[in-house]
Amino acid sequence: MTVGLVFFWPTHPVQADDPKEIDAEIANLTQQEEQLLKDVIGLETAIERNTQELADLNEQLGQAQAEYDKASQDAAEIKKKQEEESRLLNKRAVEMYKDQDVVLLLHLISSVDLTDLLNRANYIRILVDENAQLVEDYKELKEKYESAYKDVEEKRDQIAILRDEV
């Protein structure tokens, strides 16, 4: 908030012979002096208030910056986990599904008895379930990263707004 004052001082000496005029001029000048003192006090109060507002905004800016840094770090960690999950998922998908039909069929056919066949079928089901879980975990990490990235963008916008206010 910008406040300005214009000071008007008499530029000519009072040329009065009448004591009433002199008393009136003294009273007028005293009143002007009192008003100027009130204006100065008002300006000092406004300066103190604006200084406090600036300190509060700087504190908010610092907090927003800390939150932004934390959100950025969280997003980076999530992104790293997401990339690792993606790499594992891709590797596993290539190994598992490359010649899948033949490998699975050979695995089942090579069973020595019914119990072995059921155990191998169960093993295959477990692998498929684990792969499905990997896909779900990857999707969750991706959603978590997108959410964290959105938080980072919001914090960055808050910081920009606070910097504009400062």
UniProtKB/TrEMBL annotation:
Keywords on record: Coiled coil, Signal
Pfam families, A to Z: CC_PcsB (PF24568)
Gene3D superfamilies, per database record: 6.10.250.3150
Domain Peptidoglycan hydrolase PcsB coiled-coil per the UniProt entry, residue ranges: 76-146
Coiled coil: 40-81, 124-165
This protein's name: Peptidoglycan hydrolase PcsB coiled-coil domain-containing protein
TM region(s), chain numbering: none
Superkingdom of origin: Bacteria
Keyword Hydrolase annotated: no
